[in-house]
Amino acid sequence: MRLTSIVKAGLALLLGVTAGASTGAAASAATATSLTTSATAVAAASAAMAEPAFQLPFPCGQSWTGNSNASSAHQSWEIDFNRGSTADADLGDTVVAAASGTVVISAHQGSTNGFGNLVKIDHGGGWYTYYAHLLVRSVSAGATVSQGQKIGEVGNTSKPGNNISPHLHYEVRTDATSYPANIQKAKFNGVTFGYPVQTVTSNNCGGSSSNPYTPEQVCGSGYSVIDSAALGSAGTVYLLYNTSNGYNCVATFKRTSLGSKTATSAYLEVQGKTRATDSGDYGYYAGPVRASAAGTCVKWGGATGGSSYNSPFEHCG
């Protein structure tokens, strides 16, 4: 169901209760409970729909290895990031905002939680990111930051007596429930991190924070990203799959010239069938291009900003 439909349903219920009260009908406990439940559903849907398009919290092009099992302190889907071959190799490396937002914490946590120098960013819609153990913090509480902006440096600060090697401790949380259930699986460039360990190359190249859409929103309910390809710094083309109906979907997202109509395209070709293409002058994305492809190889790709990607026939399962 679209978020607007949920909101309208909640408003209709609220108006119905109000109308009943105006004609003298007493509001029952059951009605109040129903209204509260509806409001809770609307709030939860709002948070789910507002998930930002997070990128890796490191500069464009860098590759970092994340590990969710590296610390006994981990409760859920937290990730510790390193990329150097020695214990201190990452000390002082730049950490950037995974998405735009407002800094709500920039402080040394001391003995409070072992985070040491912590930056917490509010991305709106009930979504937050945490960047812990920083050597230095480059932003202050209350500051507005853009995606890809430097917010600190990799460090090993913690609580007194806790000697740790330099790394970035990264978390994504929501306000939908309490800790640690509110820690969410991290997504980078639209793809869920490959828990427990994966090496990821950063597409945090600037400009993407203003794109208000995600591949999942564009392709629709039931679709999940299974592959992606960067189009230089101009955009990214995504391949998604829906396990419930066997359909693939392709969409090309712009990073630059957002809101301005520029040549952008996306295509999907199921082996043995005619290629389907969406091409035109678009402000934010091209697509979605969908086709039934269960058990069949597909060729996919797209272009924007003078860069293009063309896959071989693949994803044949």
UniProtKB/TrEMBL annotation:
Keyword Cell membrane annotated: no
Record-linked Pfam families: Peptidase_M23
EC annotation from Swiss-Prot or TrEMBL: 3.4.-.-
Region forming the signal peptide: 1-21
InterPro entries hit by this protein: Cell_wall_metabolism_enzyme, Dup_hybrid_motif, M23ase_b-sheet_dom
Keywords, in A-Z order: Hydrolase, Signal
Protein name: M23 family metallopeptidase
Organism: Microtetraspora glauca
UniProt lineage: Bacteria, Bacillati, Actinomycetota, Actinomycetes, Streptosporangiales
